Known about the structure:
about 325 residues, alpha+beta, Jelly Rolls, 8-stranded antiparallel sheet, 4-stranded antiparallel sheet, 9 helices, 16 strands, binds ligand LS5PKE2X, binds adenosine-5'-triphosphate, binds 2-oxoglutaric acid, binds fe (ii) ion, metal ion binding, metal-binding, Phytanoyl-CoA dioxygenase, peroxisomal
Amino acid sequence: MFRATDRLKVLLHHLDRPPAAVTASSCTSAQAVSAHYRVPLRYTLDNDHLSPEQRHFYEENGFLLIKNLVSAEDIDRFREEFERICRREVQVPGLVVMRDVTIAKSEFVPDQRAVSKLQDFQEDPELFRYCKLPQILKYVECFTGPNIMAMHTMLINKPPDAGKKTSRHPMHQDLHYFPFRPADRIVCAWTAMENVDRNNGCLVVQPGTHKETLKEHDYPEWEGGVNKMYHGIRDYRSHHPRLHLVMEKGDTVFFHPLLIHGSGMNKTQGFRKAISCHYASADCYYIDVTGTTQENIGNEIKELALQKYDLDIKFQESWALRACLVQGERTSL
Ligand SMILES: CCCCCCCCCCCCCCCCC(=O)SCCNC(=O)CCNC(=O)[C@H](O)C(C)(C)COP(=O)(O)OP(=O)(O)OC[C@H]1O[C@@H](n2cnc3c(N)ncnc32)[C@H](O)[C@@H]1OP(=O)(O)O
Ligand SMILES: Nc1ncnc2c1ncn2[C@@H]1O[C@H](COP(=O)(O)OP(=O)(O)OP(=O)(O)O)[C@@H](O)[C@H]1O
Ligand SMILES: O=C(O)CCC(=O)C(=O)O
Ligand SMILES: [Fe+2]
Ligand SMILES: [Mg+2]
């Protein structure tokens, strides 16, 4: 068991704090007006790192793609560490290893190719280096402000589809998984570890959907089955056009947690790799999801914490335990 219970005791008092400070700072940014475009800026903060064009693009589309942001050397190091973990040469406390549903439910004895995702690699110094890369944090700060928490870490190794289309990730909004707010101070950084396109299941986004509300999510009714905790938007019938994000090794996309996105099936024989981190302003606050559309995922994560770690905790606490400060001060989350 990882050091969960000790950290929990320290962190519990941070929960359910009033959101006063956060509301005040987000109002300031909401009132900011771009002289260049004469539109109110809501999704980005005043900061000289983004060009007016980049700011405008994120405001309108809910994502921003930066070419060649992470070096090939760093990506090769992350790949090597991933392989060491799969060979079980390193043990990482708290690491969650996901296998595709077709493998998880079969008799097949898995080798390293059966790992479709690693989550919660905060305790692996080599992989966690990704979350602290200065060039990533410079962008993240434009959305979160200076106090930055790494909330969720993933290395996704999308396997060749086994023929049942289970390598797809249904269209969803990441905010469904998050019991913290405000949404505009949360951002995901997702870096392609190799070239990704429609053949190996690149990200698919619906530009502008970050302006919509959080939708109801549930397991899609897919014939071939669906992976555990892969909820999709219920009654997904969007009039918004889809955009396939074709990316090269090292390219990084930053996106808003309400942006509707997913990924298609991997039709190649390779394992499509990406590394990502969801960041939030440390000034965000936890919310109680009881009675909201997030109650289903909240309950699933609580059950998982109980079964896997013997921890009887709230949904919010499962996040407070795993979150790590990467810049500034841990003010609230
Ligand atoms: C403090 C504790 C908290 C722990 C939380 C851990 C993280 C949980 C994920 C949170 C998601 C946040 C995401 C935010 C960003 C947005 C997104 O990423 S959207 C997609 C989100 N969902 C996921 O990424 C979930 C991915 N899945 C996994 O990580 C794992 O599969 C798992 C759900 C954590 C299960 O792993 P584990 O408990 O280690 O599994 P096993 O012990 O091997 O099996 C237990 C049980 O579950 C069955 N199973 C295993 N894998 C799958 C699968 N892919 N699909 C369906 N079922 C699966 C397995 O057969 C066992 O079943 P049994 O009946 O008990 O035998
Ligand atoms: N019935 C559905 N309901 C919800 N989401 C779906 C459905 N079918 C596909 N998707 C989602 O749409 C996105 C694209 O998936 P899809 O497999 O169609 O890939 P694609 O990139 O469009 O490739 P192609 O159409 O060339 O096979 C993924 O997020 C996928 O999970
Ligand atoms: O890498 C992918 O296929 C999609 C990842 C994603 O959207 C997620 O895990 O939330
Ligand atoms: Fe996602
Ligand atoms: Mg399609």
